């Protein structure tokens, strides 16, 4: 049996450099995480056709953030036989915020960049799929930069597609939704789980142009980012100003020099003194999530 192969497409800087992954088998292919913007989705269509003549049968979404599914429409139009899927908990998260997000993003960026009615996924009821004899396992829900993420694990190939659980070292981490110590601990547990899989390849959620994936380095980058968050924000004796938060993380990760206003601007306003909180991103009752929801897959669940 021929192994499955994975190929990655990096979105534009304006599309936040999100990563779309194509999984190819001998006869069919599947896609994980359509991009945010329509031009990037058009690019994905051409890219798929350049890689394989085999039909696209499914498109999966790792989590509910718009930069990982909003522009599925052009891809589905180009490959009408493909189904759009997400784990049931991801579908639920998309539903919680869909109406507000589809008002916010087209108005902010323009309808030439963002679809006014992004396609919604249908719930995928299984914990794995078999593509031309190759197995891909869906692991979740797990905590990443948001609640309720799915990891896509290719055990034979030792490849894991992690969405926004891990960011490449080229990019600042979206840490704006770490509202409680339980969320932080849940995210760290997901990183531990990925490390325990001993993958040879980790496909991160964001990777800037000109950079290559590096499983160990990207995992370490995300851990370092979360540790700095705990030190400077969660456990800080005094709350920093908006400017201080921005500068602290900018200086700590100088190689990550793209989309600072988005990643660091939101982080600094969420946690800096006097910042303006992005209320359009408050739909998931993150602060009420308990450890048993976030880390209940750990047996036995250790004491906090």
From TrEMBL:
Residue span(s) of domain Metallo-beta-lactamase: 17-206
Query: Which CDD domains does the entry link to?
Result: metallo-hydrolase-like_MBL-fold
Q: Which domain of life is it from?
A: Eukaryota
Query: SUPFAM superfamilies per the record?
Result: Metallo-hydrolase/oxidoreductase
Cross-referenced SMART domains, in alphabetical order? Lactamase_B
PANTHER family per the UniProt record, alphabetical = METALLO-BETA-LACTAMASE DOMAIN-CONTAINING, METALLO-BETA-LACTAMASE SUPERFAMILY PROTEIN
Q: What is this protein called?
A: Metallo-beta-lactamase domain protein
From which lineage does this chain's organism come? Eukaryota, Fungi, Dikarya, Ascomycota, Pezizomycotina
């Amino acid at each position: 049996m021929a192994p499955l192969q994975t190929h990655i497409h990096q979105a534009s800087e304006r599309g936040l450099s999100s990563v779309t992954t194509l999984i190819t088998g001998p006869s069919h292919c599947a896609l994980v995480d359509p991009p945010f913007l329509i031009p990037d989705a058009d690019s994905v269509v051409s890219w798929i056709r350049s890689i394989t003549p085999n039909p696209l049968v499914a498109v999966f979404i790792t989590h509910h953030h718009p930069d990982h599914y909003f522009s599925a429409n052009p891809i589905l139009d180009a490959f009408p036989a493909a189904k759009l899927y997400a784990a049931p908990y991801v579908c639920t998260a998309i539903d919680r915020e869909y109406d507000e997000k589809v008002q916010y993003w087209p108005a902010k960026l323009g309808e030439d960049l963002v679809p006014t009615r992004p396609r919604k996924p249908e719930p995928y009821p299984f914990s794995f799929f078999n593509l031309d004899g190759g197995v891909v396992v869906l692991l979740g829900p797990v905590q990443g930069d948001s609640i309720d993420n799915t990891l896509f694990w290719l055990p034979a190939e030792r490849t894991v597609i992690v969405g926004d659980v891990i960011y490449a070292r080229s990019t600042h981490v979206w840490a704006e939704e770490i509202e409680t110590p339980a969320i932080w601990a849940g995210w760290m547990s997901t990183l531990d789980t990925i490390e325990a899989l001993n993958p040879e390849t980790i496909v991160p959620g964001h990777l800037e142009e000109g950079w290559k994936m590096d499983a160990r380095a990207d995992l370490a980058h995300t851990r370092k980012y979360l540790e700095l968050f705990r030190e400077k924000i969660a456990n800080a004796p005094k709350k920093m100003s908006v400017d201080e938060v921005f500068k602290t993380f900018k200086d700590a990760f100088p190689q990550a020099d793209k989309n600072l206003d988005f990643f660091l601007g939101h982080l600094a306003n969420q946690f800096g003194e006097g910042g303006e909180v992005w209320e359009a991103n408050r739909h998931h009752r993150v602060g009420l999530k308990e450890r048993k929801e976030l880390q209940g897959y750990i047996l036995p669940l250790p004491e906090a």
